[in-house]
Amino acid sequence: xxxDSIIKMINGGKNNKLMKLLRFSINNRExxxxxxxxxxxxxxxxxxxxxxxxxxxxxxxxLPNLSQLYLTDNQINDEESKIIFDTLIQLNSKIKxxxxxxxxxxxxxxxxxAEFLSNNNTLKHLNLASNKIGSKGMNKICNSLLKNETxxxxxxxxxxxxxxxxxxxxxxxxxxKTLLYFSVNGNFFTNKGIDNIISSLxxxxxxxxxxxxxxxxxxxxxxxxxxxxxxxxxxxxxxxKNVGLSDKILNxxxxxxxxxxxxxxxxxxxxxxxxDGMRKIGINIERYNNxxxxxxxxxxxxxxxxxxxxxxxPHIIFN
Length: 319
Known about the structure:
By secondary structure, the chain is of the alpha/beta class. The chain has helices at 3-12, 16-21, 29-36, 54-60, 78-90, 107-119, 134-145, 166-175, 191-198, 225-231, 247-259, 275-284, 303-312; strands at residues 44-46, 68-70, 97-99, 125-127, 153-155, 181-183, 209-211, 237-239, 265-267, 292-295, 316-318. It folds into two domains: 76-217, Ribonuclease Inhibitor (Leucine-rich repeat, LRR (right-handed beta-alpha superhelix), Alpha-Beta Horseshoe), CATH 3.80.10.10; 238-319, Leucine-rich repeat, LRR (right-handed beta-alpha superhelix). It is 40% helix and 11% strand. The protein has an eleven-stranded parallel sheet with strand order 1-2-3-4-5-6-7-8-9-10-11, with no helix packed on it. The radius of gyration is 22 Å and the shape is elongated. It starts with a helix and ends with a strand.
């Protein structure tokens, strides 16, 4: 379908049911300006991989029924992010999903996002990855999430976070009861920061999926994870990728996995695990009739040896 035919269909207003479900992405900004102003029923707006100016954004977000917003890779800075989230606050937006990753949003923008989270009770999914939120911005966001009761998914990978916000993340994860997915891969946390984050698992009452690898820590950051997992009663998926996990540390972690009754998948891709480490995991994680998936790609394991371990450990799915 051509751009002209899409514009004609949308502006014609003959099929409101279709318009409510329509997801569109057209590079011509003038067309966006034209049909957004005429159609308040639009639910999903996909502007990923465009470059949006501030004057246009003022028009784009006059959409009272907007439910999903995609703004990936738009070079959005602090000032522009303030316009976006101020508008959503003013509209008392009922939006449920925002993907605004791969932009230039810094600490000031992070503070505005935190203000939005404090005023919103519908957003469930927020992807802020590959921005420049920093620890100050993240601390503000965590403060908002101490009271927020709707957000379920938060990704802050590659956001220039460091140990200075790890304690606030710990507090947020201990007290927030709605967040189901949280990822902090690719930041600047040291061993201390990672331990602060994962120690929240002792008390957390809702998180189902945690990603905490690829930072500036080494495997010793996870030396207490065994104890944290023993107390946790909700985590289902744990990802610790590319941190140099050795057989020794993984042997201890696997004992915590064994004692945890909820985990169904653990991801140890791209570490330093050998076939002996894999065998110990198989021995330690004997879960009676419960099956657990263990992802082991890009480790020091030979394919033929994998087959032997798989046959020895039917209670584990090795991928």
